[in-house]
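Example record

One chain of 339 residues, shown exactly as stored in the release files.
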Amino acid sequence: MNNTPYILAIESSCDDTSAAVLHGNSVLSNEVASQAVHTAYGGVVPELASRAHQQNIVPVIDRALKVANIEPSQLNAIAFTNGPGLMGSLLVGTSFAKSLAMTLNVPLIPVHHMHAHILAHLIEDAHRTPIGFPFLCLTVSGGHTQLVEVHSPKDMRILGETIDDAVGEAFDKAAKIIGLPYPGGPHIDRLAKEGNPKFMEFGRPQVEGYNFSFSGMKTSFLYALQKRVQQDPDFVEQHRADICASYQNALLDVLFKKLEMAIKATGCQHVAIAGGVSANSELRKRLTSLGERDGLNTYIPPFQYTTDNAAMIGIAGYYKYLAGESSDLSISASAKVKF
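Predicted structure tokens for this chain:
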């Protein structure tokens, strides 16, 4: 008899409404509805995000079930993101998950958003060779930058994290300054391929240990550009690719300096990246090169598991299900949840 559970997962922490169905660690569907409404504002507007989640959540869940060819009555549990994230967005997913779990009389499993990004590496089709423990994971996104030592799905330790802004925000703010659309990270990545990474120098933060800081780099970027534009009003227009390449190079230098420190200190031979910024092509290239140089096993997530998606919530929920962990209906969403 096959006792492998079917889990419906819901992700609504920011501006993507996503639902997935997993059978064990295998993803049967992973549907995402993105919100184009924020582009005009150059960033996510929380009130608009929560309203869009309310519009999207029923069709997205319905599509996930149909793609997976699963009836609601076959589900064994409902996993959902209960934080961290935007409170209004989280409340939509949390409320729906609680209602569905109560209706189906199945376990309700709250998932930490950042745990899920890391555990996406345990999805069956994430890698040809399953990731080994312990591994170091550099998690980089618009809201978070963390360096985590992972011993098991339940045993993770933060070695370092940002003390101010996340690296994804540093990408997006710089992109906005030079007139690129939101979200700016992918546009910087694209233009940087055509530019000279040594064209400009930007200040690097001096932060002890494994923690990160990116607020000063954003300031350095702004002041450096203002100085050049005063001398040449067309500077940005004429050198946009070089500016992107130089700034991206500076951000990645900061990330890899800390990552290499952690590899040396922990002796971990397995190294992974996760989060939305892990889709960055230069970041992926650098990790591959680092692995080849130092004989490390490196793990780069497939693109569909880098951005906010419900499949990662489902895999985290699956391991909590196996451990018998669930919550009653008193569970609530929280914008800030302890790691």
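Notes: The chain has a mean pLDDT of 94.
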